[in-house]
Automatic annotation (TrEMBL):
This is Ketoreductase domain-containing protein. Pfam families: KR. One of its GO terms (biological process) is fatty acid biosynthetic process. GO terms for molecular function: fatty acid synthase activity. Residues 471-504 are annotated as: Disordered. Keywords: Phosphopantetheine, Phosphoprotein. It comes from Effrenium voratum. InterPro entries: KR_dom, NAD(P)-bd_dom_sf, PKS_KR, PKS_NRPS_Biosynth_Enz, SDR_fam, SET_dom_sf. Residues 878-1059 form the Ketoreductase domain. SMART domains: PKS_KR. It comes from the Eukaryota.
């Protein structure tokens, strides 16, 4: 099999390829050349000049026109274009060199694993890590580089080189998708397989990918300038190899952290043979920590500042593990060319020094810490005092450690607490680890490393503090001369103007007060200062006095700045009490939950994917995936119920008018459950006996008679079909059916099961180009539970098309049945069962997913928090569109966009009229924003299309905020199709038309104004809740298509309130709702702040965000309370018994027994 390497151009090979990689073909002692590849067979810049002069000449001519372009002169650009050129020749079956052909065929069969190839959903697993931002930056660089190349080369040359197809030549205003795919393919190959050497050479060596890589040195790769008379890439044995022993590739280019390995697509992606995947850390492991240090204009003019920057850069470079150990002919690590300290010019002409530290288990060198501590001091106040190095080397090192400690504490909070648990749950039993799992494992490993680094820093600070205190005690009673010598020996300098500042210098060296907090030397800390001190502080560090409790520190209107920018003292108190501030901005998501023991086991209950504890017989508690820090497991006071023989349930199929017939697998599952009768809605409910059996056998009959709802225990509604119908038709049909059930069920304990297939939940959007018709019904169902609780509704969505459907249906229905069955249940047990039946459950590959809420990465929502401006290409030349922007949330969103820097904005209403006197629009115009008011009925597609065409006159569309909507409130039983469509169309269809006709625009943000009614239901607003649920699913669809989208579920908004404490008329998207419960609404500043966060925020979040005021944290519905479980678990519990606290609250709220309430919480 060594012929494989010979075909790729190798002149010598002692390896052979097998199914798992490569192995030694014969015994090879240490130092033996295992592979020899002549340099002329590699992909190099020199090879482009000889093999592909068209590329070389085109780049040379473009470089003459644009001599400042580094891209045109880079070797990587030549190699990438050479790859694309030869790949096109291969696809056209043109004659080419055999070794090139063999390598391209090998590359075509590879799947790129570098972060350049990861999608948005996969990259979200890197939340909290430096590599998330780096991956986005590199992906953006690929697009920018291609745009620059196409502009420099021109369309004709680009077409000749294979960058652009002939059909795309006419217009290069936008990068053709085929061109981007080809260029990204070449960049992925170079990032994953390219080699860089100390000598500056860059090349791609074919065939090395056959070996696989390793983090353990067993081979060494070198670029020999003369090997047997010509330059060659040689792989040497770095130890003795036996014949047949596996050989893997190692060189200094692989001496990197897991983050770099993930970036370059390196590493072992296979599932471990034994046990679950773990977060491992290797010898080269480090975490990239980015410090942003603002520098004043006065400091930037100081020559000493720039010498500090250069000294810091040199110290950081010298501290790298490979420094000084590389030979000229060896490959270099991936961060070899990285500059660790960079100076960035900001828009306000101020400078910012960005320091990128690779932090491992050991601290940076003392020299690096000293220079970093000096750099932290470079602010205006200190330089005006003539003080640049007031505390000497040790004090500067201490200050740098404190800054690093605080930065690491903040970084630790950004890492998700459940990364490792999620990785284990998402990892398959065998095969390759999915990208999302790899990202989660990296995040877990980095979090562990950050925690270890914090411990090391704390120990260093504590040790240094004790040394300083000991030196201070030694100085007492010593004269000035002796004191000076002692200070010099400890490394602390004194005031150059005299001994009067000596005691202050020693005091500063001991107390280490932060200069950048603006405190004067020797000033006493106030209670405000102490209240906002970071939790990270050296033990034993003296303070003037202890802080009061958070509730005693409340000062109205006061703000703090250390890590809580824009927060009031009320916010800080709430964070101490609740664990977060209000209102809470939350991710709306689905999470995997364990299967639970059923209460009723009248017949054998299938438990797919669940294993009972054989030792105790008890079922384990729910794992808490959402906690920031480990805490004792909550123990459930549940005992497995004893099997009780009970009569079988009476099942029937309720078929809606627009639904399709159930697939054979569903029919088989229903028949196995004893479901034979079919009910249809024909003005009233009609029944066809044995309908399911005839449907499964292909026999049809129209004979039907009036149905009695009380004759059944469970009605299954199949939510598939409605193809070609309007999006709201399913909701209209389901609404009519539920209204009939409410009127006819009487006092019977009827249960409704909505059964769908990949319509909602995780994985439901795969391959879709439109919103599922069933998604809007989610808001309708949640409102039905709030208004007509006598009809419990279980929504079960599954991906199964086999016998698992029967098992899942039995399992979910039996979970909520009382012991002994329905016939023998007391009224209290029936009520408990009804509550437990109300839930949405999604099954994916046998795993059970439930809806959950947890804090968004954009938290906290401080009204005074500063949010960075939008990029200039969005604000200066782009246009923002706000539908419904003349009042309510739409107008507040428009004001937020102006605060973010938008210069052109179009706001619409149905008739182009203002809802107020227009003063707020005039204020936006006075601030420099051009505001145009347009008339547009967004429920009409042609009107939306014409509006978007008119907007192009003002500039490219960059931001869309859809806030249009009307209300037509009515009781659930009084809702009618006409009123339903009146509310649904402008909100849901308007959003869909905006989505369809802006897909080709390069949007920065696409924000949909949804409602909390879609999440928790709202009495009288079934139509509005359904429309809002459609918006939520549209946002998820756009995210799945890699298009920008955020749907914000708003609560009631006080139209006239600038403060949360003031209560005017509550509004919901501009119209009065009458929702006046204290703490249930938010103020206009909060609306504007949330809009700014979702539009300009950089952190990846779920496509659906919910804004929760305080009143929503005390729900009366156990179904809603279960959604809030991750949020409520953040509440600090000093007693350490969270389960008893929650159970006690539930008992007081509902009057049910503790065991029943706990059971319902678990089920939902």
């Amino acid at each position: 099999m060594s012929d494989r390497f010979a075909a790729l151009g190798y002149s010598a090979s002692k390896l052979k390829v097998n199914g798992t990689g490569a192995c030694a073909a014969e015994d090879a002692p240490e130092g033996t050349p295992l592979l020899v590849l002549p340099l002329q067979r590699c992909w190099t810049a020199a090879a482009v000049d000889t093999e592909c002069p068209q590329v070389s000449q085109a780049l040379a001519k473009a470089a003459l026109r644009n001599p400042d372009s580094e891209l045109l002169q880079a070797a990587s650009t030549k190699i990438a274009l050479h790859l694309i050129w030869e790949r096109r020749r291969l696809s056209n079956s043109e004659p080419m060199k055999e070794h090139r052909k063999q390598h391209l065929q090998l590359l075509e069969g590879r799947k790129a694993e570098t972060l350049l190839a990861w999608g948005r959903r996969d990259l979200e697993s890197l939340t909290g890590s430096f590599w998330l931002e780096e991956a986005h930056r590199r992906q953006e660089d690929v697009v920018a580089d291609l745009e620059s190349l196409l502009a420099d080369l021109g369309p004709e040359v680009s077409c000749k080189l294979g960058l652009v197809k002939e059909e795309d030549m006419r217009s290069l205003d936008e990068v053709p998708r085929a061109s981007l795919e080809a260029f990204a393919w070449a960049q992925c190959i170079l990032q994953e397989l390219g080699l860089h050497f100390v000598s500056g050479d860059q090349l791609l060596a074919p065939g090395l990918e056959l070996l696989g890589s390793s983090q353990e040195a067993g081979t060494v790769l070198r670029l020999e300038p003369s090997f047997q008379g010509s330059p060659a890439v040689v792989l040497y044995a770095d130890r003795d190899f036996k014949a047949g022993e596996g050989v893997r590739l190692w060189h200094h280019g692989l001496a990197c952290s897991q983050g770099f390995q993930l970036l370059m697509g390196l590493g072992d992606f296979k599932v471990p043979e034994k046990g679950a995947p773990v977060a491992t850390t290797g010898p080269w492991e480090s975490v990239e920590v980015l410090l942003r240090l603002p520098v004043s204009a006065q400091s930037s003019e100081s020559s000493k500042l720039w010498s500090i920057i250069e000294a810091l850069e040199a110290a950081l470079q010298a501290s790298r593990p490979w420094h000084g150990g590389l030979l000229l002919r060896e490959a270099v690590p991936p961060d070899f060319g990285w500059r660790r300290v960079e100076v960035i010019q900001k828009e306000d002409a101020e400078l910012e020094v960005q320091v990128r530290l690779p932090l491992g288990r050991s601290l940076p060198t003392p020299e690096a810490l000293q220079q970093l501590g000096l750099l932290i001091c470079a602010d205006t106040e200190r330089e005006e005092k003539g003080v640049l190095d007031p505390l000497g080397p040790k004090a500067c090192q201490r200050r740098a450690l404190q800054q690093l400690g605080r930065r690491l504490q903040w970084a630790l909070e950004d890492y998700p607490a459940h990364a490792l648990v999620d990785a284990r749950q998402l990892s398959p039993a065998e095969g390759l680890l999915p990208r999302r799992v790899r990202g989660l494992l990296l995040v877990a490993a980095e979090k562990q490393l950050v925690s270890e680094a914090i411990t090391v820093i704390q120990q260093a600070l504590q040790s240094d503090l004790e040394d300083s205190q000991e030196a201070h005690r030694a100085l007492q009673g010593v004269d000035d001369a002796e004191a000076s010598d002692a200070i010099a020996r400890t490394g602390d300098s004194r005031d150059p103007e005299g001994s009067g500042a000596m005691s202050e210098g020693i005091k500063d060296s001991i107390y280490s007060l932060d200069w950048d907090d603006g405190a004067e030397d020797g000033a006493e800390l106030t209670s405000k200062d102490i209240a906002t001190l970071p939790q990270f502080r050296s033990q034993g560090q003296p303070l003037t006095h202890e802080p009061d409790s958070p509730l005693k520190r409340l000062r109205k209107g006061g703000t703090c700045s250390r890590g809580h920018t824009g927060a009031t003292w009320e916010d800080l108190a709430l964070e101490t009490v609740l664990g977060f501030s209000l209102p809470a901005l939350c991710d709306v998501m689905w999470r995997v939950e364990p299967l639970l023991p059923p209460v009723y086991t009248g017949s054998k209950v299938m438990k797919p994917g669940y294993v009972e504890d054989s030792k105790t017989g008890l079922f384990p508690a729910i794992p808490k995936l959402y906690e920031r820090e480990p805490s004792p497991q909550r123990k459930l006071a549940l005992e497995p119920a004893k099997p009780v023989q009970a009569p079988p349930l009476r099942w029937a199929l309720l078929e809606l008018p627009g639904a399709s017939s159930p697939v054979p697998e569903v029919l088989a599952a229903l028949l196995a459950l004893g479901c034979e009768d079919g009910l249809k809605l024909q003005g009233k409910l009609m029944v066809q006996p044995s309908y399911v059996h005839r449907l499964a056998s292909g026999a049809f009959s129209n004979a039907a008679s009036p149905a009695k709802v009380t004759a059944y225990d469970v009605l299954v509604v199949y939510l598939e079909g409605w193809l070609g119908s309007k999006p709201e038709q399913l909701c209209v049909d389901l609404l009519a059916a539920l209204q009939v059930l409410v009127s006819e069920m009487g006092q019977s304990a009827l249960r409704v099961v909505l059964l769908s297939h990949l319509s909602v939940g995780p994985g439901s959007l795969r391959g879709r180009e439109a919103v599922s018709p069933a998604s809007a019904a989610l808001g309708l169902v949640r409102t039905a539970r709030a208004e007509v609780p006598q009809v419990p509704i279980l929504w079960l969505d599954t991906d199964a098309l086999d016998g698992s459907i029967q098992e899942q249906l039995m399992y979910e229905v039996n979970l909520a049945l009382p012991p002994g069955g329905l016939q023998n249940a007391s009224s209290l047990e029936r009520a408990q069962g009804l509550m437990a039946h109300n839930r949405e459950v999604v099954y994916r590959q046998g795993r059970r997913w439930l809806p959950r809420l947890d804090l968004s990465p954009h938290m906290p929502v401080y009204a005074g928090r500063v949010v960075g401006p939008l990029p200039p290409h969005v604000t200066e030349t782009g246009v923002a569109l706000v539908t419904g922007g003349v009042g309510g949330i739409g107008l507040a969103a428009a004001e937020a966009l102006v605060e973010l820097g938008m210069r052109r904005m179009v706001v619409t209403s149905r008739y182009g009229q203002l809802l107020d006197d227009g003063k707020r629009l005039e204020a936006m115009r006075a601030s420099g924003c051009e505001v145009i008011v347009e008339a547009c009925d967004v429920a009409v597609e042609s009107s939306v299309r014409e509006l978007l065409e008119r907007i192009q006159v003002h500039g490219p569309l960059r931001v869309v905020v859809h806030a249009s909507g009307v209300l037509e409130d009515a009781p659930f039983v009084g809702q009618d199709p006409l009123g339903f469509r009146k509310v649904f169309e402008p909100k849901a269809l308007g959003a869909w038309y905006l989505h369809r006709h802006t897909m080709q625009d390069k949007l920065h943000s696409f924000v949909l104004c949804s409602s909390l009614a879609a999440l928790v239901g709202s009495e009288g607003q079934a139509n509005y809740a359904a429309a809002s649920a459609f918006l939520d699913e549209l946002a998820r669809l756009r995210a799945a298509l890699d298009l920008p989208a955020i749907s914000v579920q708003w609560p009631a908004v006080d139209a006239w309130s600038e403060e949360p404490e003031q209560h005017g008329g509550a509004i919901w998207n501009g119209l009065t709702t009458g929702l006046e419960k204290p703490g249930s609404s938010i103020s206009l500043p909060v609306v504007r702040q949330v809009v700014k966060l979702v539009v300009a925020g950089l952190k990846p979040v779920e496509p659906v965000q919910a804004v929760l005021p305080g009143a929503y944290l005390s729900p009366t519905s156990l179904t809603v309370r279960s959604m809030l479980a991750p949020l409520l678990a953040r509440k600090p519990n000093k007693e350490g018994d969270t389960s008893m606290m929650l159970a006690s609250e539930d008992k007081q709220a509902s009057g049910l027994c503790m065991r029943s309430v706990k059971l319902c919480l678990q089920l939902t």
